[in-house]
Structure formats: C-alpha cells, structure tokens
C-alpha cells in the first residue's frame, strides 16, 4: 500500500499526517528540532473513540479516509478536517486541526457522527492521541484547591500517570495543564479547553514509547448517539517550546488567546481599575450607605468600575441566609438596600464609573421558589439535588438568559461577575433534561457556554467575569466565553504572585483579574493587611498594590476609611496603572524572569516580570523582593537589541539610567538595595 502524506507544516511546526487506511501523526515537532513523534515511536493514532467495547482510533483496520477539507477560519488560522468512516459501527469521525500562524500552537478535536441505523453508546472520547519516541521526560503540572491554586508539581514520567479532575469544575484538584520536558529541553504542553471534568493520560509501552491522550474524562460518562446524531469532543490545545523555558510556550498562548479566542468589547479593552466590596464587608456589613460612600471615594481615587458582590439579594427579614435563595434573583434585600439596586447603579454612573453586579446564575438554593415551581430545572443524581441548575435543559437556558438580561436591563449593569461555589461532580443523571443519564455535565457546560454567548451577543458592551470559589474554574474553554477570569479568593502577596505566575503560563495577563492585598472582615492566617497598621510603610504598600497591576487591576478595601497617606499612594498607583501599565498588560508579551513564588516562604523569593512590545522595542519591568529573599538579585532581560542603548526610568522615583542592550541581556540588571516586601516598576525605552 502506498503511503499518502498530508503535510500541514509551517514555518514554526512540522506536522505530517499519514492517510493510508486511516489517519496517523507521522511527524510532529518544532521546525529544526528533533520531532516528538516519528521513527521509534510509530505513527500516533491521532484520536480514540470507545464505542461500547470497541476502540476506534486512527490506526483501526477498517477505518476509511473519506475526504480532507480545508474549512473557513479567521485570518491567521488554518482549519483542516480529515473525514473518516468506520463501517462496522457506522461512525463517521471528523478529525479537526487548527493551526495558528506564527506560533507553535495548535487546537485539536473530533466530531463523531452516527451514520448507521442503530444507536451507538460512546464511553470514552480522546480528542488527542499521540505516541512519542522512547526517551526520558519530566512532567510539570499544577494542583489546585480553594486558596491554593497553581501549586506546582514536577515528576519523572513513570509507567502510567493520570492527571484529571472529577469535581465537575476544571481547576478543582488539578489545573487543565500539563507540560512534558524532554531531555534536550524541548517542551510539549497540553491543555484541555473545558470547564468540567477532563483527563490527560501518559502511558509507556513495551518498547519505551510514550502514549499521551487527552480530552473529556470518561469517569461516569456515557453518550447515546442515535442515528444521525453527532458529538463534538472537548477541544485540546497543544503548544511546543524549547530551552526548558515555559515562556516559549506561554507567549504563543497569549498571542493566540488575544487574536483568536478571547471575547472583546469596549470595556474589556480598556482593562478598567475595579473596586469590589467583598472582603472588607462580605455579606454582613454591606449596605446602601456603605456602597455609596465607597463609590464616592472610588471616583476620587480614579477607579473606573464599582462592583456589588454577594449580599445584595434575598429576603429582607434579617434572619434568613441569601444563599438559600439563589435562583430567586428578583429578591432584593430591602433592609440593606432600601433604595434598590438601580439607585446604586445610577449613583455610580453619575460619577462617571461603570456598575458591576455579582450573580451565581447556575446555583439554586434549598429554599428557592424557583426549585419549587420548576423542580425539573434542578440537576439531580440518584434523585438528590446537586445544588445547581442543569443547563442541559433548554428551559433552564431560556430562564437563565432572560434572568441575566433582566438584571442587566433593570440595573443598567456594565459588568456581571458570574460565580459558582459548588462541585457538580459527575453532574446531572436525569434523562428528561435534554440529555442522557451519562452526559449531564457535558451538556450542562455546552448549555452554559451557549447562554454566555447569547448574553454577549445581545449585550455586547457588558463585561462577563468568570469566577468559581475564586480560581476553581480556570480554563481555556471558559476563557472563550467570558472577558476576564478571577484568579483566586485570597490575595496576600506571595499567593497572588504564585497564582499569577501559574495562570500566565497559558492565559494572557489581560485575561486575568485579581485584587491587591485586601483587609478581610473574616479570619485567614495569611490575610493580615490592616490599613491602620503602624508598621505599614509606603514601600510595602507600593509592593502590595503593584502586584495587582500585573493583570486586570482590582481592590477590595473600605475606601472611605483609608488613612490619607494610603489613599494618596493608591491614587498615584491607579494613575500609574491607567496611564502606563495597562497598555503593556493588554498588548505586550510577558516573560517570567524568575521562578514561581510559593506559599509559606517557598519558591523563588524574588519575582520579576518583563512586558515587551516588540514592534516599539519598549518594555515594562516589575520587580518584587519578598520576605526571606536573598539580599540581591541580577536579572537578565529579554527581547532587547544587543546593539542598542536603552533608557530605564523608575516609576515614582527620581531615578533614570542608560544601559547597553548587550549589558542588560547578558550581564543583567542588578538589584541590591531593595528592602523585603518592596518593589520596582521600570519603563525601558530604546534610544
């Protein structure tokens, strides 16, 4: 049999498919580097579908290639689909690949369609299946839980490694992100683009070859495909890098995200400075008077958005808990907000700011009238409520859209913070919600994405924020349907740096939101910020505030009660953010110049981030010295011209220097006179 090759290579990637009696990835790697697949590993199977007891993959004997299609794609992307048919099962399988020009990143998924005359049950669908040549690999990943997102893990690849979540939220337990580091420093990153349960499998074969598969978790999953029905798998992103340097992967992720994945509107492009009431007031102390007083202070400080978080809705009797009534979003706590929510919105708008509102649209409280009036809206498993609404049900999707639309219209919302504070697990097991007993969670997220898209289409200037108990649903799937992602609930300095360092390995900085070090109403061992603390110095406050400028900027403080010197420092920092910093956060390539800071004094105690605008040869450098750091550090900068000279200007300091590019690249920029918990913000311009 002659071998037919489909060459999809470009200037950054080598990608060749064999189409002789099926589909297989014959060669895959960075241009000029040793391929990941090829001789010694055998051709990879491309995908795998488990239909009943049968496995169908790209190398299955009976698989037939029907056609190859070049499909429409946005400028800068190329979309190819190979259509195959397996006659015994009657399944048609489309293998889709999108390549993004100028990057070593691609997107992979399959569509399974039942062309036969009988129902077929899908029990596992691997969007991606690769086989690597024998070698040794280090596996990098991140574990995650509330208040401990992006905790790194590194391990040699053994006989079998499984990374997954079964909590029903993409980044509870593990983040949907894994990187293989080869002996020669080549990197291969995989990220399931999904907000529910996902899985990445690594398994060694008899000859030392390594098989990798990724996609939707098969735990408690099953999908009945009737004749004519189709199933679209979870999309998976794959990115290649070099030099054992995660920057070589994350720069491509950010560029593709900005150019192809992330929704954009006028407000998200501004990247506004936001105030949110939550940590200083929570749901106990917030009321109309407090919110309006903060709005007045926020306007004076230069804040651009004021967000009313949880605590605004529910019964007004003072005895019941609002979370028991989630779903009844028409209820407003009149004892706290006698003038209603629209009055707050109008007051914020009158001061030239935007108004934001929190909502947990997926959740349903145990006393909500919604659950009584529409018991079929509630996600259930084995007859018990799971505490959320099943968006696999088309009636729920209609209700959710109209509820959000009414909140936006009635309260003139510019920003909706969408939270989700529970674990769906395997998801809804009902068979009368528009899905079967085994695919409830899959259909929930497909339905939720559809509602988000509809809201964005009908309210194109409203910003949608993704939040889930802080950062427990951070993934590239949700990033395609919302404008910004909240990284974590806690925000003490080393934690904020830990989570941003991790998140920035696959999210652009402008797709992230986190707040500065907040003064908490409640108790947390590491949330010790107090504005009245006599030991708080301007240098420490500057450090805390600049950390929150690395991405979308937010604060959660009692603004009217800030000491005058703190208010003045905050005003200066907000001006810095608006006039200087956010242009780089929006547009620049980000390079992590140091290792990841970690909780409890672990990890790198110096933290530096360089934002680079290649076209202008202009850069912005953030440097932080944390508690326990060595006295000095020299930082080698990136992406400068060796033969040029650069002017370095320190923000809010009377300091400017001129350096040769070759000096900054190879000798580095020394930092030797910074106190612990201090910072530097340096603008670098080519002369």
Automatic annotation (TrEMBL):
EC number: 3.2.1.22
Pfam families, per database record: Glyco_hydro_36N, Melibiase
Biological processes, Gene Ontology terms: carbohydrate catabolic process
InterPro entries attached to this UniProt entry: Aldolase_TIM, Alpga-gal_N_sf, Alpha-glycosidase_related, GH, Glyco_hydro_36, Glyco_hydro_36_N, Glyco_hydro_b
Active-site residues, as the UniProt record annotates them: 419 (nucleophile), 489 (proton donor)
Record's keyword annotation contains Metal-binding: no
GO molecular function: alpha-galactosidase activity
Keywords tagged on the record: Glycosidase, Hydrolase
Domain of life from the UniProt record: Bacteria
Keyword Hydrolase recorded: yes
Domain Glycosyl hydrolase family 36 N-terminal span(s) in chain numbering: 67-225
Gene3D superfamilies from the UniProt entry: Aldolase class I (3.20.20.70), alpha-galactosidase from lactobacil brevis (2.70.98.60), Golgi alpha-mannosidase II (2.60.40.1180)
Reactions catalysed according to its record: Hydrolysis of terminal, non-reducing alpha-D-galactose residues in alpha-D-galactosides, including galactose oligosaccharides, galactomannans and galactolipids
Assigned protein family: Belongs to the glycosyl hydrolase.
PANTHER family: ALPHA-GALACTOSIDASE C-RELATED (PTHR43053:SF3), GLYCOSIDASE FAMILY 31 (PTHR43053)
Protein name per UniProt: Alpha-galactosidase
Higher taxonomy: Bacteria, Bacillati, Bacillota, Bacilli, Bacillales
């Amino acid at each position: 049999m002659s071998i037919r090759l489909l060459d999809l290579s470009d200037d950054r990637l080598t990608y060749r498919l064999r189409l002789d009696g099926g589909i297989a990835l014959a060669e895959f790697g960075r241009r000029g580097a040793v391929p990941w697949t090829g001789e010694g590993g055998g051709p990879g199977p491309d995908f795998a579908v488990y239909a009943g007891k049968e496995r169908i993959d790209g190398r299955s004997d009976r698989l037939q290639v029907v056609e190859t299609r070049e499909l429409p794609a946005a400028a800068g992307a190329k979309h190819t689909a190979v259509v195959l048919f397996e006659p015994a099962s009657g399944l048609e399988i489309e293998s889709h690949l999108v390549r993004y020009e100028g990057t070593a990143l691609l997107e992979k998924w399959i569509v399974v369609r039942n062309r036969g005359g009988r129902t077929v049950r899908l029990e596992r669908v691997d969007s991606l299946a690769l086989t690597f040549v024998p070698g040794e690999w280090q596996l990098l990943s991140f574990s995650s839980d509330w208040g401990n997102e992006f905790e790194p893990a590194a391990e040699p690849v053994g006989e079998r490694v499984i990374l997954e979540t079964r909590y029903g939220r993409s980044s509870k337990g593990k983040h949907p992100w894994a990187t293989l580091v080869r002996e020669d420093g080549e990197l291969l990153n995989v990220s399931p683009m999904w907000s529910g349960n996902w899985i990445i499998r690594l398994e060694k074969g008899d000859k030392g070859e390594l098989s990798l598969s990724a996609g939707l978790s098969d735990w408690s999953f099953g999908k009945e495909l009737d004749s004519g029905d189709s199933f679209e798998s979870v999309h998976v992103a794959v990115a290649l890098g070099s030099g054992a340097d995660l920057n070589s992967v994350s720069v491509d992720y950010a560029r593709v995200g900005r150019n192809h994945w992330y929704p954009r509107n006028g407000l998200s492009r501004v990247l506004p400075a936001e105030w949110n009431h939550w940590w200083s007031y929570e749901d106990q102390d917030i009321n109309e008077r407090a919110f309006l007083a903060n709005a007045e202070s926020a306007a004076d400080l230069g804040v651009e958005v004021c967000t009313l978080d949880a605590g605004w809705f529910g019964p007004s009797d003072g005895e019941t808990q609002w979370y028991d009534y989630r779903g009844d979003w028409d209820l407003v706590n009149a004892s706290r907000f006698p003038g209603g929510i629209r009055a707050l919105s109008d007051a914020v708008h009158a001061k030239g700011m935007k108004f934001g509102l929190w909502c947990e649209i997926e959740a349903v409280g145990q006393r909500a009238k919604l659950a009584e009036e529409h018991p079929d809206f509630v996600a259930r498993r084995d007859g018990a409520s799971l505490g959320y609404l099943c968006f696999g049900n088309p009636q729920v999707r209609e209700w959710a859209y109209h509820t959000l639309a009414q909140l936006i219209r009635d309260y003139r919302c510019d920003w909706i913070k969408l939270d989700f504070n529970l674990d769906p697990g395997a998801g809804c097991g009902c068979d009368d919600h528009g899905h079967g007993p085994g695919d409830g969670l899959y259909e929930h997220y497909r339905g939720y994405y559809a509602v988000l898209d509809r809201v964005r289409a009908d309210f194109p200037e409203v910003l949608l924020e993704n939040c889930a108990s802080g950062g427990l649903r951070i993934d590239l799937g949700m990033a395609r349907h919302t404008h910004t992602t909240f990284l974590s609930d806690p925000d003490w300095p080393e934690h904020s740096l830990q989570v941003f360092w991790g998140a920035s390995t696959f999210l652009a900085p402008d797709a992230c939101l986190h707040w500065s070090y907040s003064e908490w109403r409640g108790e947390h061992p590491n949330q010790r910020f107090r504005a009245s603390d006599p030991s708080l110095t301007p240098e420490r406050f500057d450090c805390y505030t600049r950390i929150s400028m690395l991405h979308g900027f937010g604060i959660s403080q009692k603004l009217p009660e800030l000491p005058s010197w703190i208010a003045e420092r905050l005003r200066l920092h907000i001006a810095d953010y608006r006039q200087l910093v956010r242009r780089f956060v929006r547009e620049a390539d980000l390079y992590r110049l140091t290792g990841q800071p970690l909780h409890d004094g672990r990890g790198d105690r110096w933290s530096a981030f360089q934002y680079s605008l290649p076209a202008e040869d202009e850069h912005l450098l953030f440097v932080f010295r944390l508690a326990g750091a060595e006295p000095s550090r020299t930082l080698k900068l990136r992406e400068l011209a060796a033969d040029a000279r650069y002017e370095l200007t320190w923000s809010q300091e009377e300091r400017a220097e001129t350096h040769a590019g070759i000096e900054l690249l190879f000798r580095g920029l020394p930092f030797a006179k910074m106190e612990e918990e201090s910072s530097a913000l340096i603008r670098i311009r080519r002369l």
